[in-house]
Design goal:
This protein has 264 residues and is mainly alpha-helical. It has 2 domains: 205 residues, Transferase(Phosphotransferase) domain 1 (Transferase(Phosphotransferase), domain 1, Orthogonal Bundle), CATH 1.10.510; 41 residues. The strands form 3 sheets. It has a two-stranded antiparallel sheet. A hairpin with a 5-residue loop joins strand 2 and strand 3. It is globular and about 85 Å long. This is Protein kinase domain-containing protein. One of its GO terms (molecular function) is ATP binding. InterPro entries: Kinase-like_dom_sf, Prot_kinase_dom, Ser/Thr_kinase_AS.
């Protein structure tokens, strides 16, 4: 068995005591949330399309079954309800199985099992990652995260869905989060035919999640800019130590800076 020290997505989003004990598992940043969505999409896509001619339907995608190793690599767990089937084949099960709040309503009424069952659950998990709200919360109205969030998305009030504990997303990441919400809304569509495949989801995420996921913690300046900055500081210090007038400093600053860089 593999040791997964960073626990589950359930802990990360909802367990405040864990956050107090382990600061690295406190409220996730928006960049980390986007990375989690991207990793989860790739994992589910592999189950559906990476084992041809068979595909695997997990049937129980939820935060407690999404775990992280020491490097925050995502691992899907608990395949106890998983079913393997051939592509383009619908399998009738004696009874629908899964977790309330994450189960596709169409599956519970028809028992018709397709990969769109996992697509629905994926959409619910994405809504939970972005909102920080549980799939079912009887203390709120509406209690279903799907009913609550899709209503706001339809009214283009997407920022009201974002987890206030993480602060509102800003700049370019705000657009990424908004697009993720629209993807999630498609995934939880009441008509399975209107839902994308996980391959389509991953293809879409590559287009607008890549810059966020790959963005470094610190933005490094190009080498020449860093050189200019260091030379500028040295020239300014030299002028200050020389006690020259402000006017003469200004005249000599650019000249010495350019000369200094040329000689380097």
């Amino acid at each position: 068995m593999e040791y997964l020290p960073n626990g589950s997505l359930e802990d990360l989003l909802h367990d405040k005591e864990v956050a107090l004990v382990t600061p690295s598992r406190s409220c996730p940043s928006w960049a980390r949330r986007v990375e989690i969505v991207a990793q989860l999409a790739r994992a589910v896509e592999f189950l559906h399309e990476g084992c041809k001619p068979l595909c695997i339907v997990h049937r129980d995608l939820k935060p407690s079954n999404i775990l992280f190793d020491s490097s925050w690599k995502l691992k899907l767990a608990d395949f106890g309800l998983a079913v393997s089937r051939r592509h383009s084949e619908s399998t009738n099960q004696p009874a629908a199985a899964g977790t309330i709040g994450y189960m596709d309503p169409c599956y519970t009424t028809s028992n018709k099992l397709t990969t769109k069952v996992d697509v629905y659950s994926f959409g619910v998990v994405v809504l939970e990652i972005i909102s920080g709200r549980k799939a079912i919360d009887v203390a709120r109205s509406p209690s279903s995260i799907v009913d609550w969030s899709t209503g706001l998305i339809g009214e283009q009030r997407t920022m009201e869905i974002c987890d206030v504990a993480a602060g509102l997303p800003e700049y370019f990441i705000a657009g990424t989060v908004e697009k993720l919400l629209y993807v999630a809304a498609r995934c939880v569509s009441s008509n399975p035919d209107d839902r994308p495949t996980m391959g389509e989801v991953v293809a879409g995420l590559v287009g607008f999640c890549g810059p966020v996921v790959r963005r470094p913690d610190r933005v490094r300046m190009p080498g020449w800019m860093d050189l200019v900055r260091r030379k500028l500081k040295r020239v300014r210090k030299k002028r200050d130590d020389g006690g020259q007038s402000q006017r003469s400093k200004g005249k000599l600053l650019l000249w010495e800076l350019l000369a200094d860089i040329t000689l380097t």
